[in-house]
Specification:
Length: about 200
Amino acid sequence: MDYHDNSYYIENMARQFWEMAGIAGEPGKLPRDIKTAITLALPLEVYPVPALRISHVLAWTRRIKMSHGIRGRDRRLHGCLLADRGKGTIFVDASDADEEQRFTLAHELAHFLLDYQFPRQRALSALGPSILPVLDGERAPTMEERVHAIMSSVHLGALSHVRSAPKAVCPRTSSSISKTGRTGWRWSSSRPQNLCVP
């Protein structure tokens, strides 16, 4: 099932997120403080960086010695998500307007929930707690785990997609997403469940 095309699933995930943040059911209070909600509800940190670029994210990953899947030339970004070992970090361009920052945070949050946390929970449910060292990149999956993952439609590899800041001729809402394979996403087996979504 492609959860990206299932509006019921996405709406339910959003409702659960706002409930975890403790501010569900406050209909008149818009826009909501999504940055605070993210840090209250999930194991995510948010880093606003003025004029965010890939080079800023790469420098951060080098400082904390984090493996990643970021590729390509240095360029401006609206946001970037790095997720590993059940936690994540969202970088957001602090130079963007407040509305654009909220959109970016919601966009990266959706990737954390739909493309990282949910598949991780599915893998744990399908394969048991012994798969955790594989998901955390501490060991490669055994052949039996690979077969079980395939039979259960569970991904053990990393995912990457790009949402760059558009060039001047492109509309602000443009998004460049690389889609390949049966699931529509590019999965790699370089480091299991190390998600990089710039």
